[in-house]
Specification:
The protein has 217 residues and is mainly α. The protein has one domain: Methane Monooxygenase Hydroxylase, Chain G, domain 1. 86% of the residues lie in helices and 0% in strands. The protein has seven helices and no strands. Helix 1 runs antiparallel to helix 2 and helix 4 packs antiparallel against helix 5. It is elongated, with a radius of gyration of 19 Å.
Length: 217
Amino acid sequence: MQRENLDRGILELREEIVRMSGLVRSALRESVRVLQSRDMEAAQRIVDGDEEVNRIRYDIEEKCLTVIATQQPVAGDLRSLFSILEIATEVERIGDYAKGIARISIGIGSKPLMKPIITIPILVDRVCAMLEDSMEALVACSAEAAREVAARDGEIDQLNDRSQRVILTFIMEDHRTMAEALHLTWVSHNLERAGDRVVNICERIAFTATGKFADLG
C-alpha cells in the first residue's frame, strides 16, 4: 500500500507540473500576441497571472516535502522527487520570462510598433513546442525523448541570432526606432533563455530515467 501511495504521489506531482507548464505556455504565447496587438490590459493580466504559476510551484514544493517525510522513498524515488522540484522551478522561471515580455510591452506603450516583428512569433512557437514535448518526456520518464527535445535548442539559438540581426537593421534604417528595438532585443533574449530552461528540464528528465547526469546544452 505504501508503494502504491508513493507512486501515486509522484504521478500527481508530475501532473501538477504539466498543468503549470500549460499555463506558462499560454502566457508565453499571449505575451508575444500582446506585443503585436499592443493590448495593455492583456499585458497586465499576464503580469498578474504569474502569481498563479508561483502558487502552483510552491504547492508542488510542499507536496514533494510531504511525500519525502511520510512515504519513505528509496534512492530512485528521491531522484524523481528532487528532479520534480528542479523542473517545477525551471517551469516557473519560464513563466517569469512571459511576465517580462508583458512588462516590456507595457514599457513600449500602447502605440503600434514602428516595425513588424516576424522572427519573434516563430521563436515563441518553437519554444512552446519544446516545453510541451518536454512534458511528454517527463510523463513517460523517457531519456531518449528528453534528449531529442534538448537537441532542438540549436534552432532556438539560430532564430534568436536572426531576430537580433533583424532588430539591428531597424536601428540602422531609422535611429528613431532605437528605444523600441532595444526592447525587442530583450524579448528575443527572454525567449532564447526560455529555451535554455527547457534544456535544463530535459537534463533532469534524463537524470531521473538513467541515474546519470548529462549536459544536453
